[in-house]
Amino acid sequence: MPSRRDTIADDLRDRIATGRLNPGDRLPSEAHLAAQYMVSTPTLRNALAVLQAEGLVEKVHGKGNFVRRPVRRITYLGGARTPDTPVVDLAPLSVTARTTKVRARGHLAALLKMPTGSPLTEILCLGHEGERPHSLARIYVPCDLAPAACESLPYEAVVTRLMELRPPLAEVREEISVRLPTSEEASTLRISSALAVLAITRQAADTAGRVVEAALLVLPGDRADAVFTTHHMLDERPAEA
Amino acid sequence: MPSRRDTIADDLRDRIATGRLNPGDRLPSEAHLAAQYMVSTPTLRNALAVLQAEGLVEKVHGKGNFVRRPVRRITYLGGARTPDTPVVDLAPLSVTARTTKVRARGHLAALLKMPTGSPLTEILCLGHEGERPHSLARIYVPCDLAPAACESLPYEAVVTRLMELRPPLAEVREEISVRLPTSEEASTLRISSALAVLAITRQAADTAGRVVEAALLVLPGDRADAVFTTHHMLDERPAEA
DNA sequence: GAGTGGTCTAGACCACGAG
DNA sequence: TCGTGGTCTAGACCACTCA
Q: Which keywords are on file for this protein (chains A, B) (predicted)?
């Protein structure tokens, strides 16, 4: 027996799929919809929450519920990439970076295989697409591998300098998990705190086994994919794209 | 201003973290807790939903809310793995498989690069840890690469036969996304339909570029990680673990 | 049958956005 | 100021589990 919430969500989803509701359209108010479907407002809101989690509907406080424009999905390219590929594929997007010095503690120290309290450079990156933030990255590198006085450099310059300072990488480990955003992440990314995010922990080591970078990436779950392509090493080694 | 829901969730989370509530413990009933915190039952249930999404609390209909035993997280090993590594690391776990013949359609046909209607063998795998299901995999292979009459074979035998029939792989592409489970997936995995899952689409091709396997994996977001390790190809090629 | 969670109701009050 | 969504209330009724 499908719940009323799901019945309503299915109906609205169908309305969007068949073009009766178009991207950018404002939905009738929640009170209106509740009356149409003859349910209480909490029930209707639950139905909208389903669609919101699917990325079909966007709620804007004080304005209404809107059919989301089909956003290009963010693609995180993991693994087999050339060393100068940016951490997230931000091709036509803008990234703002802020660099600060912090000290390793807890999980972060373990990730970098450095003792607690070790000085680190944190590069906080926020990817934008138009007005809207859409990816958050915290990159940590040992201070000796960080560009000096780079607080004011633009993102591209920081990345370029990082690559120059860094020894060649031997191994990259990426761990992907799903979780709810912290409230800070939710407000930074302007997503609902109920929308799960893709959390990627990236650890890059040089040939000596030294961890030269740890990165914590947060991508909104409704529009992020992570893609890994592995070329198996056979007799012939395929060229990497 | 933190909401009451978050205040309550924070308090319960703290009770768990500090050991005042221990794994396996049953929480007081929702009505009881609502009275303690002086909130209505929906508000209290929202607070529990937060903890449930974090994997700290498990709701069991008709029995109560329980502090979750720290479950071993499921680790999906992607990318750089030897060909005979199972799709999901199910080491001490049991897997049941069911094999049926289906026809490629829509997304699946595109994934396999086969025309719509092509015959496929579907291997439906359900990973168990004890009584509890914890991973769902749908593996599709062209019929000529599927073991004949394998409907009744155990999982391990099916996988072994698959590997024997399959040409060496050249490229594996894995796409990871976050979404809510379908109602079928939620009931099969016995998770709440509000708990996001890690959805992994795996596409394996042989040296000729033919797709020899497409797999759709669904892992519960509260206890699943996907790990990718890339050994960069430098002068010396590191041995694969 | 007693107790539990699951769903839903019909409101109330507050916070936000736009005119 | 008005309409919107955000949060919350104090119940009701149903479904499930277990004794």
A: DNA-binding, Transcription, Transcription regulation
Domain ranges of chain B: 4-67, 74-229
Q: Please state the pTM of the whole predicted model.
A: 0.81
* Fold adopted by B4-67: Arc Repressor Mutant, subunit A (1.10.10)
Name the residue of chain B whose CA is nearest to A238's CA. B170
The residues with which B169 forms a beta bridge, in sequence order, are B206
Using pLDDT thresholds of 50, 70 and 90, give the confidence band for residue B86. very low
Q: Which fold has domain A74-229?
A: Chorismate lyase (3.40.1410)
Say how many C-beta atoms besides its own lie within 10 A of residue B11's C-beta: 13
* Residue-wise pLDDT tens digits, B183-235: 778 778 877 777 788 999 999 888 888 898 899 999 988 888 888 887 755 43
Give the pLDDT confidence of A80-124 residue by residue, as tens digits: 454 444 455 544 566 777 777 788 788 899 998 988 888 888 888
Distance A64 CA to C18 C1' (A): 12
Tell which strand D nucleotides have any atom below 7 Å from a protein Cβ. 3-12, 15-18
For the purposes of burial, counting CB atoms within 10 Å of the CB of B130, is it exposed (0-12), middle (13-18) or buried (19 or more)? exposed
Do A125 and A97 meet the contact criterion of CB atoms below 8 Å apart?
A: yes
